[in-house]
Specification:
By secondary structure, this protein is an alpha+beta fold. The protein is built from eleven helices and four strands, in the order H-E-H-H-H-H-H-E-E-H-H-H-H-E-H. Strands 2-3-1-4 form a four-stranded antiparallel β-sheet.
């Protein structure tokens, strides 16, 4: 059934009147809330930076190449962001609630229902979301500063929140640094024990080899045998020279020549025997014994050097762990606000007026389009 022009005019008037009425009511409620009903919230602010007190930060341990390194610290920017995440965490909220009873403070029924936590026994998820709306931790990457702000319904509570955030933040960072340093020390201690066992095994292998061969120092024995051979060869050369001189005026069958020949023969046999002790294709010659001994001695010496390096690195790691502290230096102490900075009543009221007016204008436009289609 087609509506008459009179009916359409009445409906259009009622529609415009309804939209305008709703917009007027919304504007009145918004202005009333921001000007009178909204509870004052005080903002405490502090600025802080994280500084490392360990002078050797960033240096590599001497054992780093051997033990896969124990350690570089976290960069400054990463420290700030890590702390920011902790200060906004549920764990931090629980700690603050245990000290300051934030649930009771934020859910105080004397405050307006819009800004407060609706009920005291709200779930931890809703409580945490409300906490993040009231606590702000921002990192200024250019200055390297954390700007911490906390809102509360009274100045002392706001200041107490920021003060505890600073204190707990420093404790958290120090605990994290010490935990990392202790893990590094534990790793170095374990590696040192392993290296010590390898060193003792290498030294014991060297001692067992000396016992089996009845040689305290194969190197010294080899040098002595070489000296004996050299001395015998010099003696043999002198004897041959003497025999040549005797044959110049004596017969080969003379007693003096025979005696020299016997001495030459005995010297040559002794040289052959001593050389056989030094090197021989059969049996365990001294040169092979010396080669095995040198390998065992080199392995034992290398193990000893590694063990000494491990001990130095372990002591250095313990020293660094003892002074591995990250101090949260406060550039601006938590302020005690003297007047409420939140909510920004004039600004919020103006924004509300603009938003409601824009919504009403869009509603009028939609209504006009619908009426045109009906016509």
């Amino acid at each position: 059934m087609r509506k008459s022009p009179l009916d359409r005019g009445v409906l259009a008037f009622l529609g415009r009147h309804l939209i305008s009425s709703l917009a007027t009511v919304a504007l009145a409620l918004s202005i009333l809330y921001w000007s009178i009903m909204a509870s004052d919230r005080y903002v405490s602010e502090t600025h802080a930076v994280i500084q490392r007190t360990d002078l050797a930060a960033g240096q590599t341990m001497d054992l780093g190449g051997l033990l896969a390194g124990a350690g570089a610290g976290i960069g400054g920017g990463a420290d700030q962001l890590l702390l920011r995440d902790y200060l906004l965490s549920v764990d931090m909220l629980k700690a603050l609630d245990a000290r300051l009873d934030l649930r009771s403070h934020y859910s105080d029924r004397r405050r307006d229902i819009v800004s407060r936590l609706w009920y005291k026994d709200a779930s931890i998820e809703k409580f945490h979301a409300h906490y993040k709306n009231r606590v702000s931790v921002e990192y200024d990457a250019y200055a390297g500063v954390l700007v911490i702000q906390a809102q509360a319904y009274d100045p002392k509570t706001a200041q107490a929140i920021t003060r505890h955030l600073v204190q707990d933040g420093e404790t958290f960072m120090n605990g994290l640094a010490r935990q990392l340093a202790q893990e590094q020390v534990d790793f170095l201690s374990g590696q040192t024990r392993v290296i010590r066992a390898d060193t003792l095994k290498a030294r014991q292998a060297l001692l067992d080899f000396q016992d089996r061969n009845n040689l305290a120092s194969p190197q010294g024995t080899s040098e002595n045998l070489t000296s004996i051979v050299n001395r015998l060869e010099a003696q043999l050369s002198d004897l041959k020279t003497r025999r040549a001189a005797l044959l110049g005026y004596l017969m080969p069958s003379s007693a003096n020549v025979i005696e020299v020949n016997l001495q030459i023969q005995a010297t040559e046999q002794q040289i052959t025997l001593e050389k056989a002790r030094l090197s021989s294709p059969k049996g365990q010659a001294l040169n092979r014994t010396l080669e095995q001994y040198q390998r065992l001695e080199m392995a034992a010496q290398f193990a000893q050097d590694v063990y000494q390096t491990a001990l130095v690195a372990l002591e250095k790691g313990r020293f660094e762990a003892a002074r591995s502290v990250k101090k949260m230096s406060v550039l601006q102490a938590p302020t005690l606000p003297e007047y409420s900075m939140e909510p920004r009543r004039a600004y919020n009221a103006l924004v509300s007026v603009l938003v409601i007016s824009l919504a009403a204008g869009i509603a009028h436009l939609i209504a006009a389009i619908i009426r045109d289609h009906e016509d």
